[in-house]
Please model this.
Amino acid sequence: MLKFTPDTNVLVLTGAGISAESGIRTFRDSGGLWENHRVEDVATPEAFNSNPVKVWEFYRQRYQDSISSKPNPAHFALVKLEQFLGDNFLLVTQNVDCLHIKAGSKRVLEMHGSLANCICTKCHSKLAIKDIDLTQPIPLCPFCNGFLRPDIVWFGEIPHYLSIIDDALRKCSVFIIVGTSGVVYPAAGFVLTAKLMGAKTIAINLEKPDNLAYIDEFYQGKSGEILPGLVAMWIGE
Ligand code: NAD
Model:
């Protein structure tokens, strides 16, 4: 049975599935449609350039969903794991819903950005969404009047923190994946690096992920039901 000590170096990658039990829809549940939108129509720089009003409609709703949702037992289990491991823990999330931070995770990298912020397309100022007037069809920058865009890494854009994540993948002795389909790159390829560098790889997911071939231990089911028990076992509670 796998046991961690405070010296075990653990890297965790989460995806939309960890937030499903908090009521936030995953990307694939709607069969390629995301809340009745095609990804290309709402989550690409081209979509924003051609129809910023529609893109803002979509993200305004995502933001409202994130405000009203609460972390679930899987998010809290990762907080507990971080408290046990301290600086030997790092959480990388593909999610933009802020639920890890709401739960109390501190060592977290939001590689696809965050619904909590937006960025000016003209002067590049970063602002908290709570401080802007969201009733405008296209919210405007209070400093330069430029169009604001959500602080989200869209398809076709480069995720944040890739070099820090690469270092962490090479250093970790255990790599844990929670609630991600293993389809969206580059995150879907992280498991290969971790495994090649000698880490034990573990996944918790409702369905078999696409990168299952690189996973040593797979737990199939809901992360809110499975992860708390696994964390308790790993830290010897
Ligand atoms: P995905 O939708 O492609 O995959 C989600 C996976 O979670 C699926 O394999 C599904 O079987 C699994 N799942 C569903 N419910 C689960 C549960 N209760 N417990 C455990 N697993 C469960 O999501 P992805 O791999 O994260 O990739 C989609 C992209 O879209 C990501 O880039 C992500 O940033 C973005 N996205 C984010 C959110 C969010 O912030 N919550 C929501 C939707 C999409």
Notes: Residues 132 and 142 are 8 Å apart (CA to CA). Residues 15-17, 19-21, 24, 26-28, 94-97, 112, 179-181, 183-184, 205-207, 209, 222-223 surround nicotinamide-adenine-dinucleotide (CB under 6 Å).
